[in-house]
Sequence to fold (279 residues):
Amino acid sequence: MENVRAEITRSIPGNVGANNALLIHPLPMRTVFRDCFLANFAVSPEALATRLPPHIQPDVHHGRAFVSVVIARLEKMRPAFLPRMFGVTYMQVVYRAVVRCGEERGVSFLRSDADNSLMVLGGNALTFFRFHRANISWQKDSGAIRFSLTPGNGDAARIDADFDIAGGTETLPKSSCFTSLNEAQRALTELYVAFGPQECNSKVNAVRIQRDTWQSRVVEDRLGTYEAMRSGVLFNAGEAELDSVLYVESLNYHWYRRCFVEAGANASVVRETSTERPS
Fold:
C-alpha cells in the first residue's frame, strides 16, 4: 500500500509552491460530457485512506468509501473564453475518490486516462489529474455502448465495458449500499470541488466546478472489467466492489481557475456523511 501511495504522490505535478504556482489550473476550462458513466466502487475507508494524502480523508456512507470510474467523451474542451471551434474532443477516464478536506466534500483524482496525447501532456503539466495515454475504443448503437481501454504504458488498468443504456432504470442493484437513486446521486455526484496537493503554508490547491444537474439512470455493465481496481495499480483484489453504474447523456462542465481551501484542524478524522434528506 505504501508503494501505491508513493506512486500517486509522485504523479502530482511538481512541488506545489512558488516555482510553479502559476502553472496549476491557470485557466478556466469548459466542455460537454457526452455519454458519461460513473462506475461506482465501494471500498473500506481504511483502504482508501492509504491512497490519499494526509490532508484528505474518505467521505463515508453506510460504512463504505467510494471511488467512481468516470467514463465520457469530452466534447470541445477549451479555455472558457474561447469559442467551440477551438476545442478538442477526446475520450477520458477518471478515477476519482469521494473525499473530505476540512469541512467540505469533494473529489480527489487517483488516475486519469485519455486518448489524446496533447491533452495528456497539457493535463500533466497544468493540472493534478494524473493523466496517462491510452488506446480507447468506443462503439454506440441504439441500445448499448461498448467501451474498451488499453493503457499505452502497459499498466494493468485495462477496461472492458458493455453498457446497456436501453435498459436504464431508477432502480439500484440489490447489492448497492444505497437505498435509492436519489441517495446515490447525492453521495456520488453532488460534488463541486476537486482537491489537490497541499502547499507548505497548509493551504490546499483546489478547482471548483459548475455543471448541469445530474439526471442519472442506473445501467448494467455486462462485462465489468476495471483492472486498476483489482490489479494493484490502484487497489488490490478484493478491496473494491462494484456498487452501481450511473449514466447521464449530456452535461455542460465549467472548471474555474485554481483556488485554495483550508485542510481543517481534524484532517485525520474519518467521518460518516448522511445523505438522507432533512425532514
User: Anything to note?
Assistant: Residues 52 and 234 are 11 Å apart (CA to CA). Residues 1-19 have pLDDT under 50 and may be disordered. The longest helix spans residues 117-126. The first strand starts at residue 29 and ends at 43.
